[in-house]
Amino acid sequence: DAGITQSPRYKITETGRQVTLMCHQTWSHSYMFWYRQDLGHGLRLIYYSAAADITDKGEVSDGYVVSRSKTENFPLTLESATRSQTSVYFCASSDRWLAGVQGHQETQYFGPGTRLLVL
Amino acid sequence: AQKVTQAQTEISVVEKEDVTLDCVYETRDTTYYLFWYKQPPSGELVFLIRRNSFDEQNEISGRYSWNFQKSTSSFNFTITASQVVDSAVYFCALSGRRVKLTFGTGTRLTIIP
């Protein structure tokens, strides 16, 4: 029962380098999310995906790129890392969110996080 | 726009005391969901509870209880007879018509043995 995993768990890189953080879930959840956690800000949404090949920006998407070719994977790429992207990154997934008069929000379950340091 | 405010940045209590973590939210959506997550020192985020806006009944789970009051836009979390293992950062979060979660900035709870 792996659930949701992230790799690497720790990463040190240099300014300007490209970095990819991996996220994999075994629940076949439709939705996947990337958040970053910084002191004083809580968690902020970077990108999310409703299904394979469907992605959308969150509140802090600049400098990040995502893809979702398979339902179970949702990699996050920092195209040219900056020091301001030093953070803890969390991936999350949730089951289908059903639209309607009342709607239905399934719980988001989080991976263990990736600590990224950009020097 | 949605907003979640956790005004208590840090709280310290002696073991076995009761403690309440406050959460105040803002949303224009008539249907919304509220969540609490726990982040222990190991760093993972652990889901604790989800409530929808149609259900204002308070909930109790062991030593944990939640008080949801739409009139004051609050969703407070109480730990009874606190234990050292309750030491963590606790996040309140909100989602509305859209699937995205809005988090508060968290409350760091320290239980002193």
- Total DSSP helices of chain A: 0
The dominant shape of chain B is globular
What can be said about the biggest beta sheet of chain A?
7 strands, mixed
Number of strands of chain B: 12
Name the poorly predicted regions of chain B: none
Number of strands of chain A: 11
Mean pLDDT across every amino acid position of chain B: 93
H and E order of chain A: EEEEEEEEEEE
Please estimate the helix content of chain A: under 10%
Q: Provide the succession of SSEs of chain B.
A: EEEEEEEEEEEE
**Helix proportion of residues of chain B, in percent?**
under 10%
**β content of chain A, as a range?**
over 45%
Q: What overall form of chain A do the CA principal axes indicate?
A: globular
Q: Oligomer, anyone?
A: heterodimer
Span between termini of chain B: 41 Å
Q: What does the model show?
A:
- The complex is a heterodimer of chains A (119) and B (113).
- Chain A contains no helices and 11 strands.
- Chain A is mostly beta strands and 119 residues long.
- In chain A, strands 2, 4, 5, 6, 9, 10 and 11 form a 7-stranded mixed β-sheet that branches. Chain A has a 4-stranded antiparallel β-sheet with strand order 1-3-8-7, with no helix packed on it.
- The mean pLDDT of chain A is 90.
- Chain B has no helices and 12 strands.
